[in-house]
Design a protein that fits this description.
This protein is of the alpha+beta class. The chain is built from ten helices and 14 strands. The protein has three domains: 125 residues, Schlafen, AAA domain (Methyltransferase, Cobalt-precorrin-4 Transmethylase, Domain 2), CATH 3.30.950.30; 57 residues, no CATH class; 97 residues, no CATH class. The strands form five sheets. The chain has a four-stranded mixed beta sheet with strand order 1-2-5-4. A hairpin with a 4-residue loop joins strand 13 and strand 14. The longest helix has 15 residues. The two termini are 21 Å apart.
Length: 327
């Protein structure tokens, strides 16, 4: 597989890694960087891959603005029985991204053009900056500052990732003024966000037979409760074919889980409304509020381009294995 607009090969870790990552963050489709493969596609491998992964994470965390935490994933991949490092980079919602030490300039901001990483023209920088989302939940102040995060600590402990005293800034739960932001509010033990599921007897909303309300607690807890509820509703259908018993689920479990997680991760919480889930006799309807994320056109959406609306939530969901590493 040759280099392309979404694939970059690097023989080893070099000083220009941040530049390549910035280019993919600013590109509408994101991309993948492989370390341990030369520009001709020959696998050469990476020695001591574990410390190299930690170094990469540290560099991307500290050397790129706005923060790209939650927008990249680092893993080991085996090619020709040799270890290489794979860095998946999502398209960022707060373009333009740039290398911190060079600032928001042609020396610091880059864009992917074909298989090359090119300096971003000043006019493009200014245009993207003018469109940057200024009311993301990472910037909005929490309506309460007396937040408690016992549930979040329990979920991280269960995932084997104990939170330290710096968990709030590390998880981007504070805004630029140091106050708890709306992400923190959603992750706190107590909030006013209600997540509802409803079940109807027929094909419309006339005959309501069950109504459940989750939430008012950590968004992680609400997500897990909805997943459990939908699992109960996802009946197993059985039929006999040629003396064989064939069992299938009403909905594909993998696709269903992804749809539910998508609804939580990409919901527009600035409206203080959570996703809702409705069961009908012939279907399940999932409603996630908000239009297309800033910087994503309707055509790009249907072509499969991805722009995470809430990168802070995405990062926490990934930490807790609620989304796959390639998400």
């Amino acid at each position: 597989m040759p280099e392309s607009n979404r694939i970059e090969y690097k023989q080893k870790l070099t000083d220009d890694l941040e530049k390549e990552v910035v280019a993919f963050l600013n590109y509408h489709e994101g991309g993948v960087i492989y370390l341990g493969i030369d520009k001709f596609g020959k696998v050469v491998g990476i020695t001591e891959s574990d410390p190299v992964q930690l170094l990469i994470k540290d560099r991307l965390k500290n050397n790129i603005l706005p923060s790209c935490m939650g927008l990249f994933d680092i893993s080991i991949e085996i090619r020709d029985e040799i270890e290489v490092i794979k860095i998946i980079v999502a398209s960022g919602p707060e373009k333009p991204y740039y290398v911190k030490k060079y600032g928001m300039s042609e020396k610091g901001a880059f864009i992917r053009t074909g298989s090359a990483c090119e300096p971003m023209p000043v006019k493009m920088i200014e245009t993207l900056f003018a469109k940057r989302t200024r009311h993301s939940i990472g910037k909005v102040r929490s309506p309460r500052q007396d937040l408690v995060f016992e549930q979040l600590h329990i979920y991280y402990d269960a995932a084997g990732k104990r939170l330290n005293e710096q968990f709030a800034p590390n998880l981007e739960l504070r805004n630029e003024d140091g106050d708890y932001n709306y992400v923190a509010y959603l992750m706190a033990d107590i909030n006013r966000i209600s997540v509802k599921t409803a079940k109807y007897k027929g094909l419309d909303r006339v005959d309501l037979i069950e109504n459940n309300e989750y939430g008012h607690a950590s968004l992680i807890k609400a997500t897990k409760q909805v997943l459990e509820k939908v699992e109960l509703e996802n009946r197993t259908l059985t039929r006999i074919i040629s003396r064989e018993r064939e069992e299938t689920r009403l909905w594909n479990p993998v696709a269903l889980r992804e749809a539910i997680i998508n609804a939580f991760v990409h919901n527009d919480y600035t409206r203080e409304i959570a996703p809702k889930f409705e069961f009908f006799a012939d279907r399940l309807e999932i409603t996630s509020y908000g239009g297309l994320p800033q910087g994503l056109s309707r055509q790009e959406f249907f072509e499969g381009f991805s722009v995470p609306r809430n990168k802070e939530i995405m990062r926490i969901f990934r930490d807790l294995d609620l989304v796959s590493q390639g998400y």
